[in-house]
Amino acid sequence: MILKFFRDSSGIGTMVIDNPPFNYLKNPVFCCKEELSSFLSAPDLKAAVIKGSGRNFCGGADFEIFREQIGDAKSFSTNLNEGKELLEIIRQAPVPVAACIKGSCLGAGFEIALNCHFRFAADSAMFGFPESDKNIFPGFSGTQAELPVHIRIGMILSGEFIRGEDAYKKGIVHYTAQASGIEKMCYSYLERLVGDKPPYLIHAVMQSIVSSHTMPREQAMLRETDLFIAVAAKSLSE
Prior knowledge:
The chain has 238 residues and is an alpha/beta fold. It has two domains: 3-194, 2-enoyl-CoA Hydratase, Chain A, domain 1; 199-236. Helix content is 45%, strand content 16%. The protein contains nine helices and nine strands. It has helices at 33-40, 63-69, 73-91, 108-114, 149-158, 164-169, 182-194, 199-214, 217-236; strands at 3-6, 12-17, 47-52, 97-101, 104-106, 118-122, 126-128, 162-163, 175-177. β1 (3-6) and β2 form a beta hairpin. The longest helix has 20 residues, at 217-236. The protein is globular. The termini are far apart.
């Protein structure tokens, strides 16, 4: 398990992909499911950042280990689907999750970032899906990413890398800065976003937004009503 968790008094948690220098994933199950869920659902958590250890976000899967694992297709399929459950926990988190990206953000690392709500990237960061060079494709949610179809097809089949500044222009990342300032930008943005907001408000907003893509619209609208009433009752009684 290479994902490490950190908390401080700010209400913003940090998750670090820790396998330097490129932070390759040794297994699709890159952390303990229960630990990730518990971390992101902590009652006093307001937001979270995921970043890589050192100079890179994540260079993707360790291909030599992947080559060995794929030999047992049934076992690897189970691991891959369990890894995707981790991505869904991030995507459906009750707090905003931001990917803070420097250096390489490739393959499975790119797929992790694409499941975050915000992506902050150094202008020199490098994004791409190199899998097609080996006649495979990104199977860790890459084809399902919430990006325009032409971008998904183009990046997956070409295998070309793009820099952070170009990823920003294409809408793949939301904010960009020089590598030396990207972490400060990321944390400062989140502090401004959630700093003076009570956790119960943040959690309700995120739960309602998540319901918009996990429930039929009619159910999501009812869920929004329930959450609004609960938040209003609590806020107006204080």
